[in-house]
Structure of ABC transmembrane type-1 domain-containing protein:
Amino acid sequence: MRRRNWTIPYALFLAVFVVMPLLLIVLYAFTDAEGAFTFANFRKFMMHPEALNTFVYSIGIAIITTLVCLLLGYPAAYILSQARFNTSRTMVVLFILPMWVNILIRTLATVALFDFLNLPLGEGALIFGMVYNFLPFMIYPIYNTLQKMDRSLIEAAQDLGANPLQVFIKTIFPLSMPGVMSGIVMVFMPTVSTFAIAELLTMNNIKLFGSTVQESINNGMWNYGAALSLIMLLLIGVTILFTNEEDSASNEGGGVI
């Protein structure tokens, strides 16, 4: 058998479970309930202040969550990547261990923690829950990039007279940008589209864009929900495109003293 024949099952899987759902989303987004072509679903979104405000608010929450995860995750990944940190592999497993537990269970545990500490559920709890759930997705790609970094480049920077701060700013950080960009994408994308975390940690008092999509589908407004989903997909696509461009630029110009 030819080797390319082994790709047929994967091609069928992609066609049925990836391509067809995306095509259906596009089809429903640009049609009305009778199947006629229309832009009314997008006009409804643009003219509906609540949906538009929810979209902007969700982006803001996603940006805050991503920044907090980056500020907490990069130092942790850097420490774990150091050769003198003998238990780094064990610590990495401990960091990613929560990823093995269902996200709903982790969120319910966060709700129970806030209840035990008599802390109110709201925006603060939402950001805390987002960071708690998605922090491992920031740490692991940065750790992998730092772990695979060529140490001779760091030694070369030190031989050229760079102090530790200069070595980090001009060598380590630029070379770790691929991991940083991967972590940003892996945190930003699910934060924008999630709805269960917001519902549980705010007692349905704060609505994110994912909740708007869910409500539209549950209420039978498939066309409007598909339009909202397409808008979210376009946002995610732009995010990936932007991070890929930044990644290419950092690879071309990073690591120079």
User: Anything to note?
Assistant: The two ends are 52 Å apart (CA to CA).
